[in-house]
Amino acid sequence: MQAIILYITYAILISMLSIVVHELGHLFFGLLSGYSFSTFSVWRFHWFKEEGKLRFEFSKSSLGGQCLMSPPEEFEKFRFLLYNLGGGLVNFAFALAFLPMLNLESPLSFAVAMVVVMFTQGIMNLIPFGRKLQNDGLNVIKALESQNAKRAFYNLFRTHARLMLGETYADFEENFFDMPKDANVNNYLIATSISCKAEQLDYLGRHEEAALEFERLTSAKLDKFPTIYALDMKMTLIGFYLMTKKDRRAATDLAQNVLVKKTLGGGDSSYAAIRAAYAFFVNADRDRALAFLDVDCENMPKGKRIMLEREIDRLRGLIES
Hints:
The protein has two domains: 2-127, no CATH class; 141-320, Serine Threonine Protein Phosphatase 5, Tetratricopeptide repeat (Alpha Horseshoe). Helices cover 58% and strands 8% of the residues. The protein contains 13 helices and four strands. The protein has a four-stranded antiparallel beta sheet with strand order 3-2-1-4, with helices on both faces.
């Protein structure tokens, strides 16, 4: 019994270590691929680069593990295989390093726990397990589908880095998020770039052009996207239907999804304006809508925070008028 308890203790501690090792793998191979540091998070410990300086803070929410880096500015120099697969590869390397230490007479040893946990972590991140579970391996597969997908993947990395620096969509080049009309919107990377393009146009006040980009997303098979991307697309479309197209029925249809319904009830502060719009335009609940607008935006990238605060101010003025 003591051996089992000790093994479980090993497994828990090594599971925590495997997350750190995994993210350090992304960091190492990212630097090797010419990327620059953006953010590194493990549980509530968050390191990030702001105004050229490395800063640290305790996050209000636990992210598990995350390493985000910025690729070279020139798209032609964009390499993503090593950076994306690096975390899982380092997990495998640790597992292999402990293989010679295995003792078949002691199946509940530290070495066994290390091999099992590290190997499992690598598998879970590199092998796609269906469309709903997004991991590093699935991202690579989707990015390799076409040049458009590769460009969209690049856009995601560069967008996060620029938002961290405090840039808003007004600072982005007009064609930065452009995707050809024949681009496959059922690739979640491409769909995300189109969504960002629509949000950029909307932010610049070019609502009719934004509507055309949003309309492209309505043909995407969102239920086949990984859960996190499907949720973001549906929430974004709800915002479009309510604040641009004035189509409450379409917004209500999307809100029937269980996860969307839960998200509309609270949670991620980046959806504050969409929650408030739904509460006001669909549920006619003015007080709840205003309550949704009182959020803490400090934990999000500076540029995203600036854009959200402007949207909140605009919506608050509309609700209070």
